[in-house]
Amino acid sequence: MLASTSTRPARADDEPAISRLHSDVLGPGRFARSAYRVREGKGRLSRFCRVVEWNGQLVAALRMTEVTIGGVPGAALLGPIVVSSNHQSQGFGRLLIRDAIDAAREAGLRLVILVGDEPYYGRFGFQIIPEAQIVLPGPANPNRLLALEIEGGALARYRGVVAAVSGGSLSKAAG
Ligand SMILES: CC(C)(COP(=O)(O)OP(=O)(O)OC[C@H]1O[C@@H](n2cnc3c(N)ncnc32)[C@H](O)[C@@H]1OP(=O)(O)O)[C@@H](O)C(=O)NCCC(=O)NCCS
């Protein structure tokens, strides 16, 4: 099944379908998530956002935003990643994450961070960030703040507050 599936970059006209997917799967509490708060006012879709279409329907979407951490560039914040309820556990999430990591590497980024479950993201190489080293807006469970070093030893260079990099967005729409 997945052999015939691939991800593609998100386009501005995917936004309504992506928003519906987020609303259906994440519910109204999604706006409190760190990834939403970091991006507030900085646009929604970036060149790193990707989607999966299956039978003509958008069934999975990943957002990733270039960020600075403590003012240091070269990092990205992954999230949210959402797979529609009817299509979960079929490999779509894995496909999106692998392609996003490849895109980050090709763009010369050194580190990808996210807020999520280590038992899932650990399989891609994400590890728990030492407590208080990296700070996101809002309350965050330190055991869910994870990083993947694209460049060996990169995490040690990043310390402080995460902020979205302005520019490069496909869209400036809110929410
Ligand atoms: C989490 C999510 C993105 C994973 O994508 P997916 O396409 O369903 O998952 P994949 O096919 O890549 O991987 C499936 C495997 O991951 C496991 N898995 C899924 N979510 C997990 C979690 N939160 N913790 C641990 N394992 C998890 C499944 O049990 C399955 O395990 P198996 O391979 O041993 O059978 C998707 O299930 C989803 O959208 N969930 C709801 C929204 C959400 O929580 N998003 C992440 C926060 S931003």
Plain-language structure description:
It is a single chain. This protein is of the alpha+beta class and 175 residues long. The chain is 21% helix and 30% strand. The chain has four helices and nine strands, in the order E-H-H-E-E-E-H-E-H-E-E-E-E. Strands 1, 2, 3, 4, 5, 6, 7, 8 and 9 form a nine-stranded mixed sheet that branches. The structure holds coenzyme A.
Which terms summarize this structure?
175 residues; alpha+beta; 9-stranded mixed β-sheet; 9 strands; 21% helix; binds coenzyme A
Q: Structural class given helices, strands, pairing?
A: alpha+beta
Number of helices, counting only DSSP H or I runs of 4 residues or more:
4
Overall geometry = globular
Tell me about the largest β-sheet.
9 strands, mixed
Number of domains as seen in the coordinates: 1
Intertermini distance: 33 Å
**CATH superfamily placement:** Gcn5-related N-acetyltransferase (GNAT)
Unique bound compounds: coenzyme A
Overall strand count? 9
Work out the radius of gyration: 15 Å
